[in-house]
DNA sequence: CTGAAAGCGCTAACAG
DNA sequence: CTGTTAGCGCTTTCAG
């Protein structure tokens, strides 16, 4: 691959000579304590810089200073609204702090994630943000890499992974799902099924368990649980399976995330049924698509943008190493779970 | 047995001494022409690096080499599926080439974009990718900044902005919309309205114009044009306005992008109407939400992911400076525009 | 093949 | 306030 020579960018020295001052003065005028340089020279330097179209070499700055103005953000999938919202929040927070965001995507592969952390470490970023829950439970290698980074003075913050010993911003998946269950029971529903993701996925587990807990608290039996992929197609497939088997009095299906729920709705329509009327559906996350679908999807709102933002703050503040910030979720009842008729109460 | 001092990462020299070789050899073993170092020393160095958890300081590497292994990606809005898909494609391409992506978002502000280009230039990235169409037509300052970057050996590629003198990957918005119009006319539609974005937005203009051209070719009159925001709320507002004013025989509304179309569908439902039945709707982009809504949205498919990918390739190849890659769009007819009854053909 | 030495562009003590 | 002098961590001639 062609190595484009960056040779001809004007350097600090160019600016300095152009302005008739020393490199040190130029540096001070452009960055350092602006206070200590005379107004005239300051103007001269600024003018020279503008004339030459000077842009400081950030790499050189970084090596000289020993620290960078960047934040490394690792997420699993940019095309997923869940992650891109977190990323948007993180970027906003970073920019507010005058930091640039470097970003890499893992495609949900733990191996790739490990590799990325290792590479990113080379950038000596101010902080590394892990933006999403991990697939597996095997953190050993990742933890070691992170450990090394932190030992060298780096900061780490994690979104939605209460498993690592770093500042973490998360939500209470269990509680959110429990509240949803309670609200749905109050709406008159009694016969549920749960569409859940792979068991290894902590998030999925917590949400499914929370939902069951909510039902249990209302004195209801544990519902059917169908395991499937954590994706829209997964939701579609699971619902199709459910339909094949016969609904048999089922009133509401809770999918552990919105995309699954949306897939389930699609399966219903494919079978000639109307979501919300023939079978109620609820999801989790409140991605923007939740209000685009018809009927609008009942779900649990997750403050994704805020999570990204808070993760940055957590990393930058750097007080309590293991601090956990738990952001509140909100049950959002929409048309996919209309108030249920009383006579179905048993 | 040298222990890395707490608070800083092990350096190349640390690895070198640990392995009992010179820094130069360590450098060669870890990066340079692996050929020129003896197998034993190679092994020694690798082992030492692993033991110390060494991660090369990329900034230092960059200053020494004068070039970086990064690509700077500038995007308008990460939460918008259109841009995040482009970004995902770009990231994929960059990673395939062993490059890291640095990313900044402009929030659709030209000033911010300019500022960002200026800052990014300081990173001396291998290439800068502008990932989306610009709001205004005033490129002067941006062009100058980019010019300076390129003069210093940087590469630039642009997505969807045929206005700048750089490698550009784009789609034929005009043609795509024209084809859509033709297809819809063939479906029996005759009375249209167009929801368009701000006039300054080139993309919006081209799509609206293309649609009109398609109708004109079929011998139909120019339809109503409503200008609004380029967002879902904009689509909602415009459609609401349209409803207030009375549909008056209107059969189909074409919104210049999918999010606007989805907003319009929402407005319809808010008014108690059924999209697709009472009024047909079509959009442009084919974002994933287009298949989530009910009825599924007729639209023009844009290969966003591929655009991001090609932009990287274009930048990296660096042959023709002003090369324009035009990716094909595809009309996708879905349920939001059912075949129209013949008797409405007037 | 390998080490010594000279930078890369910038910052940060130190004297003046 | 400002110039001089050292580096930052790494790469890369240039001799051996």
UniProtKB/TrEMBL annotation, chains A, B:
Domain of life: Bacteria
PROSITE patterns listed in its UniProt record: HTH_LACI_1 (PS00356), HTH_LACI_2 (PS50932)
Chain coiled-coil ranges: none
InterPro entries per the UniProt record, alphabetical: HTH_LacI, LacI/GalR-like_sensor, Lambda_DNA-bd_dom_sf, Peripla_BP_I
Keywords: DNA-binding, Transcription, Transcription regulation
UniProt-listed CDD domains: HTH_LacI (cd01392), PBP1_LacI_sugar_binding-like (cd06267)
Domain called HTH lacI-type: residue spans: 10-65
SUPFAM superfamilies on file: lambda repressor-like DNA-binding domains, Periplasmic binding protein-like I
A Pfam match: Peripla_BP_3
Record protein name field: LacI family transcriptional regulator
Organism: Amycolatopsis bullii
């Amino acid at each position: 691959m062609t190595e484009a020579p960056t040779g001809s960018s004007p350097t600090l020295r160019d600016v300095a000579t152009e302005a008739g001052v020393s490199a040190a003065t130029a540096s001070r005028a452009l960055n350092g304590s602006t206070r200590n340089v005379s107004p005239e020279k300051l103007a001269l330097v600024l003018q020279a810089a503008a004339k030459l179209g000077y842009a400081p070499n950030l790499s050189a700055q970084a090596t000289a200073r020993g620290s960078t103005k960047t934040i490394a953000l690792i997420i699993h999938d940019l095309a997923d609204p869940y992650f891109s919202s977190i990323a948007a929040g993180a970027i906003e927070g970073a920019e507010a702090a005058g930091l640039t965001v470097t970003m890499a995507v893992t495609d949900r592969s733990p191996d790739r994630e490990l590799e990325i952390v290792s590479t990113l470490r080379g950038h000596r970023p101010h902080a590394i943000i892990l933006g999403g829950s991990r697939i597996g439970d095997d953190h050993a290698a990742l933890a070691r890499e992170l450990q090394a980074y932190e030992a060298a003075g780096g900061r780490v913050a994690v979104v939605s992974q209460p498993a690592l010993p770093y500042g973490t911003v998360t939500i209470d998946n269990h509680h959110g799902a429990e509240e949803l269950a309670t609200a749905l029971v109050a709406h008159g529903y009694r016969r549920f099924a749960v569409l859940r993701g792979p068991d290894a996925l902590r998030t999925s587990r917590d949400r499914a368990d929370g939902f069951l807990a909510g039902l249990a608290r209302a004195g209801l039996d544990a519902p059917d649980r169908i395991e499937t992929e954590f994706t829209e197609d997964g939701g579609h497939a699971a619902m199709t399976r459910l339909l094949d088997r016969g609904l048999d009095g089922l009133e509401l299906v809770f999918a552990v995330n919105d995309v699954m729920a949306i897939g389930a709705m699609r399966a219903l329509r494919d079978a000639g049924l109307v979501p919300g009327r023939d079978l109620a559906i609820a999801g989790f996350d409140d991605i923007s698509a939740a209000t685009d679908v018809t009927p609008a999807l009942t779900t649990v709102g997750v403050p994704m943008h805020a999570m990204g933002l808070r993760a940055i703050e957590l990393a930058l503040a750097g007080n309590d190493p293991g601090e956990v910030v738990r952001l509140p979720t909100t049950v959002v009842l929409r048309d996919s779970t209309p108030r249920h008729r009383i006579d179905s109460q048993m």
